[in-house]
Amino acid sequence: MRKSLKTTLLITVPLLVLAISLLLPRVRLLTAHFLPSSSSIALRHSSTSALSNMAFEKELQVALLAVQRATLLTKSVFHSHAKGTLSKNDASPVTIGDFGAQALIISALQHNFPNDEIVAEEEAKDLRENSQLRETVWELVQAAKLSDAQVEKDVLGGAISSADSMLDIIDKGDSKGGSSGRIWAIDPIDGTKGFLRGGQYAVCLALMVDGDVKVGVLGCPNLPVSDSEPLKEGIGADASDEEGRFGVLFSAVQGQGAESRPFTAGALKEGKSIQMKPLSNIADATFCESVEAGHSSQGDAANIASKLGITKPSVRMDSQAKYGSIARGAGDLYLRLPVRKDYQEKIWDHAAGDLIVREAGGMVTDVDGQKLDFSHGRTLKENKGVIAAPKSVHGKVIEVVKEVLGRPT
Ligand SMILES: Nc1ncnc2c1ncn2[C@@H]1O[C@H](COP(=O)(O)OS(=O)(=O)O)[C@@H](OP(=O)(O)O)[C@H]1O
Ligand SMILES: [Mg+2]
Ligand SMILES: [Mg+2]
Ligand SMILES: [Mg+2]
C-alpha cells in the first residue's frame, strides 16, 4: 500500500510541477490583462513590442488606447451621423467628432495621470449653449468603447459619469502650456476639413515634459495600413474596413524610435519600427503639403521644389498624416510655408508628428532651421512654418527655403 502511494507521488508530483510551469506564463498574461495596475500595462505592452521597463511605457500604452478609442468615435461619426458642424470664431470648422474625441482622451488621461496639465484645441462653450448638440455628443461618447471591456474600464477609466461632467472634462484642456512640468497636447481631429470631405485626418496626442516632446501618438484611420504604399493625394474615404484598409496608428517615445501598427477596433496590434526613406538625390523627393492653400503657401512650395530639381508633383493631404507618411518612408519632405505673417502654429498641430519624424531619423525645424519649440505656451510663437526632411538633405532644403522666402541667412 505504502509502496503504491510512493509510486503515485513519484509520478504525479513531477507532472503537477510540469503543468504549473506551463500554465504560469498564461496566468501572468491573463492577470496582466485584467489588472488595473501599471504592471499590467507594462506586461501587455512588452508582449506587443519588446519595450519592457522603458521610460514612458505606461504613458505610451495609455496614449495608444486613448487615441484608438477616440479614433473609433470619429469613424462612427463619419459613417453614421450628420457631422454637427459649427464654425468657430476663426471661421474654422468643429464637429461633434472633435468634441467627443477630446472628451474621451482627456477622461483617459485624468484617470491615469490626474496631476498632468492638458492643452487641447476645443472648448465646451458651444455645447453648454446648445442642449441638442450636447445630447448628441453625449450619446456618441457613451457609445464609444473599446471591445475589451476590462481594458476600457481599468486602463481608460471607463465611462464618463454624466453629460455635465463631460463638459467639464472637455474644458480641462485649457492649460496655458509652458516650459515646465508634464503637459499633454491634444488635437482631437486634426484636419477637420479633411475629415468632413472624407480625406485624411488624424487624432493627435503628445506628452511634453519641460517643453520637450517625450511621447507622440497619431491615429490616422484613412491612411493605408501598409507602410510601403506610395503617397496618394489626400482622399481616404475609399479605404473601407471591408477592404482590410483600416488605417494606422503611429507612435514614438523620445530615444526609443518610432513605430506604426495597423489600426483596429480590437486589441492593439504589434508595433513595427519605421524609418524615413534614405534619399541620396533630393531631386528624387516626393513632398507633401496642406490641401488648404490658406494653411501653407503652395506657390512658395512649388518654387522651392523647382529650385531643388524636384519634378514629381506635390502630394496634398490634410492633417498630421503628413508627418506619419514621411516618417514611414511613403514620402520624403513635408513643407508648411507661412501664408500670413501673424499666424502662430498651434502646438497640438505638430507635437506628436514632430517627435515621430525625428524618432524615424528625420529632422524637423521651422523655415529658418530652428527646432520647433513647444515651451512657449499653446502656440509655437518662436517658429514660422515647418520643414521636415531626412537629415541628409534637410540643410539643403532650408538653404533653398530661406532663399525663396527671403529669410535672413
Ligand atoms: N492660417 C493658417 N496657417 C497654418 N495653419 C492653419 C491656419 N489656419 C488654421 N490652421 C491649422 O491647420 C490645421 C490643419 O492643417 P493641415 O496641414 O491639415 O491643413 S490642410 O487641412 O491640409 O489644409 C488646422 O488644424 P485643425 O483645426 O485641427 O483641422 C488648423 O489648426
Ligand atoms: Mg480646428
Ligand atoms: Mg489641427
Ligand atoms: Mg483639430
From TrEMBL:
<dbReference type="InterPro" id="IPR020550">
    <property type="entry name" value="Inositol_monophosphatase_CS"/>
</dbReference>
<feature type="binding site">
    <location>
        <position position="190"/>
    </location>
    <ligand>
        <name>Mg(2+)</name>
    </ligand>
</feature>
<dbReference type="InterPro" id="IPR006239">
    <property type="entry name" value="DPNP"/>
</dbReference>
<comment type="similarity">
    <text>Belongs to the inositol monophosphatase superfamily.</text>
</comment>
<keyword id="KW-0479">Metal-binding</keyword>
<dbReference type="Pfam" id="PF00459">
    <property type="entry name" value="Inositol_P"/>
</dbReference>
<keyword id="KW-0378">Hydrolase</keyword>
<feature type="binding site">
    <location>
        <position position="349"/>
    </location>
    <ligand>
        <name>Mg(2+)</name>
    </ligand>
</feature>
<dbReference type="GO" id="GO:0008441">
    <property type="term" value="F:3'(2'),5'-bisphosphate nucleotidase activity"/>
</dbReference>
<dbReference type="GO" id="GO:0046872">
    <property type="term" value="F:metal ion binding"/>
</dbReference>
<dbReference type="InterPro" id="IPR051090">
    <property type="entry name" value="Inositol_monoP_superfamily"/>
</dbReference>
<feature type="binding site">
    <location>
        <position position="189"/>
    </location>
    <ligand>
        <name>Mg(2+)</name>
    </ligand>
</feature>
<dbReference type="InterPro" id="IPR020583">
    <property type="entry name" value="Inositol_monoP_metal-BS"/>
</dbReference>
<dbReference type="InterPro" id="IPR000760">
    <property type="entry name" value="Inositol_monophosphatase-like"/>
</dbReference>
<protein>
    <recommendedName>
        <fullName>3'(2'),5'-bisphosphate nucleotidase</fullName>
        <ecNumber>3.1.3.7</ecNumber>
    </recommendedName>
</protein>
<feature type="binding site">
    <location>
        <position position="187"/>
    </location>
    <ligand>
        <name>Mg(2+)</name>
    </ligand>
</feature>
<dbReference type="GO" id="GO:0000103">
    <property type="term" value="P:sulfate assimilation"/>
</dbReference>
<dbReference type="GO" id="GO:0016078">
    <property type="term" value="P:tRNA decay"/>
</dbReference>
<dbReference type="GO" id="GO:0046854">
    <property type="term" value="P:phosphatidylinositol phosphate biosynthetic process"/>
</dbReference>
<keyword id="KW-0460">Magnesium</keyword>
<feature type="binding site">
    <location>
        <position position="121"/>
    </location>
    <ligand>
        <name>Mg(2+)</name>
    </ligand>
</feature>
